[in-house]
Amino acid sequence: MSGNSDHPAHVRPVMTDDAPEILRYAAFSTRPEGGNPAGVVLDATGLTGERMLAIAAEIGYSETAFLTPGDSQDAYRVRYFSPLVEVPFCGHATVAAAVAVAGRTGPGRYLFGTAAGDVPVEVEHGADGLRATLTSVEPKVEEVPEADVQEALALLGWSAADLDPALPPRIGYAGARHLVLAAGTRSRLARLDYDFDGLAAYMRARDLVTLQLVWREAPDVFHVRDPFPVGGVVEDPATGAAAAAFGAYLRELGAVTAPAVLTLHQGEDLGRPGVLRVELRAEDTRVRVSGAAVAIP
Q1: Nearest Cα to Cα of residue 79 among 103, 44, 108
Q2: Which pLDDT belongs to residue 7?
Q3: Is the pTM of this model over 0.90?
Q4: Which of 43, 224, 277, 287 could form a disulfide with 136 if both were Cys (CB 3.0 to 4.6 A apart)?
């Protein structure tokens, strides 16, 4: 299938149940070859879940966002599909979809109704094009049983000695569940070769969407990687939902103090570098994740 991004801003995309218009955007990057590619269907009215899954599988990106008009102008219902499963929330596809909408209607504020809850998104002009900021649903952080940690490490080919003791394992949630594991060195993070089927089964049993593997370069700068075998993807190049969960994790641990702005570098080891901005506000426990997005020709 192919999409056409040349419609004027005032023209609603033309689509049928059999051939929806599919846009392709790279999120958390100003270059099409960077960040995380996402499919975007701006009007999925009439598409069944099975059809959406088939489209997402054909596109082959880690996620595709399917939008339908909401109850008011600038409000949308959004569903997210990987090539294998529907996920409750996807940050990079949210950024991509919001920028795609803004490219046709102009920058502004939108409300995305997702399976995880309502997610406000604001799009504005940045120095390098349109940028979107999503505000997560209410986050939470959970302890992880030691046996679960050891099993995850074994599946990754890591050992307990590879971990950063200052950032203990936790499960973070800000629309989807992610197991956070902090590497003690950048070289440990760079070497990722894991048991795909074994980790997928482990994650499905615990309702995890990705593993958020991190290394702390500086107090407010991190490098991250996200295995995503439950979605049929070895690694997600830039993961907004996990970034939001990670922000909540750092606040819960006291590893950062709000207000704070964090920079996450992701995708460098895949040759698709992206940058995610994570903001924690003192007066609000929800997490804001920002990034650019650009159309993929």
Answers
A1: 44
A2: 29
A3: yes
A4: 287
Q: How remote is the C-alpha of 217 from its chain's centroid?
A: 21
Q: How confident is the model at residue 11 (pLDDT cuts 50, 70, 90)?
A: very low
Same-domain pairing of 157 and 119: no
DSSP per-residue string spanning 47-93: --HHHHHHHHHHH-SSEEEEEEE-SSTTEEEEEEE-SS-EES--HHH
In this structure, what is the dihedral angle of CA atoms 40, 46, 48, 51, given to the nearest 10 degrees?
-50
| Cβ pair 62, 234 in contact under 8 A | no
> Which residues carry out catalysis?
63
Number of domains the chain is built from: 2
For residues 96 and 152, membership in a common domain is answered with no
Let me know whether 174 and 76 are in one domain.
no
Structure tokens at 279: 């903001």
d(CA 49, CA 77): 13
* Dist CA 295 CA 30 (whole Å): 9
Q: Given the DSSP bridges, would you call strands 36-41 and 260-266 parallel, antiparallel or unpaired?
A: unpaired
In sequence order, the 6+-apart residues with CB closer than 8 A to the CB of 201 are none
Integer distance in angstroms from the first to the last C-alpha of the chain?
14
At CA 32, angle to CA 286 and CA 78, rounded to 5?
Answer: 40
CB 272 within 8 A of CB 25: no
pLDDT at 160 over 60: yes
Same domain, 145 and 291: yes
CB within 8 A of 61, min separation 6: which ones? 24, 36, 37, 38, 39, 83
pLDDT of 10 above 70: no
- C-alpha span between 264 and 238 (Å, rounded): 9
